[in-house]
Amino acid sequence: FPEYKANRAKTPDEFRSQLSFISEILEAFAIPVVEREGYEADDVIATLTKRALELDGSAQVLITSGDRDSFQLIRPGVMVLYPKKGVTELARMDEAAVLEKYGITPEQYPDFAALRGDPSDKLPSIPGVGEKTATKWIQEHGSLSQLIANAAHVPGKAGEALRASLAQVTLNRELTHLVDDVPMDRENVDRLV
Questions:
Q1: CB burial class (10 A; 0-12, 13-18, 19+) of residue 90?
Q2: Which residues pair with residue 63 across a beta bridge?
Q3: pTM of the predicted structure, to 2 decimals
Q4: For the CA atoms of 103, 132, 46, 174, what is the dihedral angle to 10 degrees?
Q5: Which pLDDT belongs to residue 25?
Q6: Residue 49 in contact with residue 63, Cβ under 8 Å?
Q7: What is the pLDDT of residues 117-140, one digit of tens each?
Q8: Radius of gyration of the chain from Cα atoms?
Q9: Within 10 A of 154 (CB to CB), how many other CB atoms are there?
Q10: By C-alpha distance, which of 116, 118, 165 is closest to 137?
Q11: What is the mean pLDDT of residues 109-122?
Q12: Rounded CA gap, 47 and 112, in Å?
C-alpha cells in the first residue's frame, strides 16, 4: 500500500545525528535493543508480548505506546500505558478500559480500526462512517469478517459506502493487524522476556 504512512514527516537530521548517542546510552545501561529489518516496532513488541506469555502464563506485560494499534495486544496480564498528556500522564489501558472507551474488546480493535481508518498511517476511512458507526457495526456483527459477510444487508448510505469500500477496509485490516511471529533468535528473545 504505497500511501501507508506516506504523510509521516522525514526523520529530522538533528534526531538522526543523536541516534549513535542514544545507542551508547542504551548499551551503557545494559538496556536491550530489539529490531528486525522489514518489521515495525509494534510487530516486535507483539512478538515479545506473545513470547512472554508463552514462557510464563502469569507474566505481567506493560507496553508503553502512543499507538492505539497496541490495544489489540491487551489481554489478561497485558496492559498498555497510553499517553494522555505527553509522557507525564499515562492511561492504564486494560480490557475494561478499551471496552469503556470504545465499546469493543481489544480483540475487536483491529476490526474497528480498519473501518475507522487511521489518518496518521494514511489509511482511509469509509466515507461518512465515523467511530460511532464503526463501533455499532462491530458490536452488532461481532467482527469485521461477519460484517463483510453481511454487508449486503447493511442499510442506508453507510451500508452503500461500506460495500463500495470493502477492498480498502480489508486492506486496512491487514495493515492494522500486528505481526506476533517476527523471526528472531529464540534464545535472545527468551533472555529479554
A1: middle
A2: 80
A3: 0.85
A4: 140
A5: 94
A6: yes
A7: 988 788 899 999 999 999 999 999
A8: 19
A9: 18
A10: 116
A11: 90
A12: 22
